[in-house]
Amino acid sequence: MKRIVSGFRKMNPFEPALVGSLKQYSVEKLGADITAGVIVGIIALPLAMALGIASGVTPEAGLFTAIVAGFVISLLGGSRFQVSGPTGAFVVVIYSIVQNYGIGLLPLCTIMAGIILLLMGFCGLGKVIKFIPHPVTMGFTTGIAVVLLLGQIKDFLGLPIQNLPADSFGRIKVYLFNLKLLDPQSLGIGLLTLGILFFWPKKYLPKIPITLIALVIPTVLVYIFKLPVETIIDRFPSGIPQSLPKITVPVFSIKAFCDLISPAFTIALLGAMESLLSAVVADSLTDDRHNSNQELMGQGIGNIFSGFFGGIPATGAIARTAANIRSGAHSPVSGIVHAIVLLLIVLVASPLANLIPLTALSAVLIMVAVNMGEWHEFQRFKRVPISDFAVFITVFALTILAGITVAVEIGLVLAALLFSKRVADISNLSGLYEVSSILSNRENSLANVNLPEGVQAFRIQGAFFFGTADKLETALRRAQQDTRVTILMLDQVIDIDSTGLNALESFYERLVKTNSHLILCNVPSRPLRVLIRSGFICTIGKDHFAQSLDDAIIKAQALCKVEESFDTLPASAPENGKF
């Protein structure tokens, strides 16, 4: 066991980006990081509260998540510029968990998701997550944006709805039924907030985050004119506490674990995708390079801490990360400062935050949803393969109609199928008697040499796996029926899986039944290891392996002569072949 753990440590050493950043740190960089952290902390304040409320929990849960998870992930993550906290990607699944299992089990689910993320990073799956196809990721993101948008209509219009359904159709039905009860004053404050967010002139107060301006102005108007618009303190009478987050141990049971494993996996996968996407964006803006496995481990530990402090799931936030970079950040210290700034605001200015109108917070999330959706994907469908667009639409529709958990599960299946199809398309099986050009790069070209009678040769190109095994079966079934020796050239096979191996074994068994032979030629090291472990080499014999096509042809000629000698034996010859 110690050897296994030691092996994983060598493969994925625990090296937070903060450690490397501090090696060439300076007072100037510290000043820049503090400035960036303060700015991002102010930006994160309304988002954390709004996302907490939209998720079906309290605003302090969102704030404590940004504080605790934001601090831990910056401390232990693999990106120098990543800023983490609650994001819109989790709102849908968190709200569903609260509705189905109760708010009491949310911390346990957050911890479970954190453990999954930690294991993903520990096992080196950071690079694997990046292989999820672009259409799947964009389908998730755009679908979540639509669901997030639908979730803000209630507070934006001031509708007196107590329990909002988790499904999109249910929400639309409830909205239409209660539309006549909309509050004009709430709608007016919401529209004012949206107008500020989208149309505020940048020349006025350019150094103050626009989200702060968009919340301060409506809050002041509601307070001065005593407008009957619902605020944070109205919905949550206890308000945002002026205290440090408290450690709470979630209630654990086998039933709760079984119920939450699926949503926890969904949260972990979404968190991995979102955080690594945000880290890639940060790399593109800074010419830096993040450590994907370390980032997943940092995200996992951050979510575990968030769960123990009563928070919600957290991940890398693209908008806050970009703002961090634009504000002059140099290291993860800025992310740590952002968490400290949020904590100071909670301890000092909570009474003021309690006065923020809920319709203004919903307007902020509407802006988040609009910026989050990949709406341009709908315009690109004429320029991308129809299969890619079909996957995008399917995942997008499932996210809205069936829920994010179902969309994630089916999206992963579609990703695997799409990958398999692409690899199968570029894999090939060529017969040497049909395509002589495949010999063109050999030192001693045999392009003008015919294969001996009764011998056929094929070259497999690409990955020999479950997506291409059927191609081999079909091609070989159509091969010459009077063949005594079949040569398979595997020099261009990059890998072979169990299905490809099974196809090879089945083909060999058919050859044995017809007294034919199989010779494998130019087997690369990776596929060769698979054949050795499976015992296939022992099955066909080492003498049926050849280092080159020349060697394979010589072996085939020898086997054909042996077959001919047996064919010419008298019919009365004894079974042992002796006279």
Give a brief description.
With 579 residues, this protein is of the alpha/beta class.
Architecture overview:
The chain has 579 residues and is α/β, with parallel strands linked by helices. The chain has 2 domains: 380 residues, no CATH class; 138 residues, Transcription Regulator spoIIAA (2-Layer Sandwich), CATH 3.30.750. Helices cover 62% and strands 6% of the residues. It has 25 helices and 7 strands. Strands 3-4-5-6-7 form a 5-stranded mixed sheet, sandwiched between helices. A two-stranded antiparallel ribbon has the order 1-2. β5, α22 and β6 form a beta-alpha-beta unit. The two termini are 62 Å apart. The C terminus is likely disordered.
Average predicted confidence as pLDDT: 86
Specify the helix fraction band.
55-70%
Biggest sheet: strands, sense, closure? Answer: 5 strands, mixed
Distance between the termini: 62 Å
Largest sheet: spatial strand order: 3-4-5-6-7
Structural class: alpha/beta
Shape: elongated
- Number of E strands: 7
Provide the gyration radius in Å.
31 Å
Total helical segments: 25
- Poorly predicted regions are 433-449, 571-579
Q: How many domains, as an integer?
A: 2
Percentage of residues in DSSP E strands: 5-15%
List the keywords.
2 domains; 62% helix; 579 residues; Transcription Regulator spoIIAA; disordered C terminus
Give the SSE layout:
Elements (H helix, E strand, L loop, with lengths): L1 H10 L5 H5 L5 H28 L4 H18 L7 E2 L2 H14 L4 H17 L3 H4 L4 H18 L1 H5 L10 H11 L5 H16 L10 H15 L7 H4 L18 H33 L5 H17 L6 E2 L1 H9 L6 H21 L4 H15 L13 H16 L2 H23 L1 E4 L23 E10 L4 H9 L7 E12 L1 H16 L3 E5 L3 H10 L1 H5 L4 E2 L2 H19 L12
Parallel strand pairs: 4-5, 5-6, 6-7
Antiparallel strand pairs: 1-2, 3-4
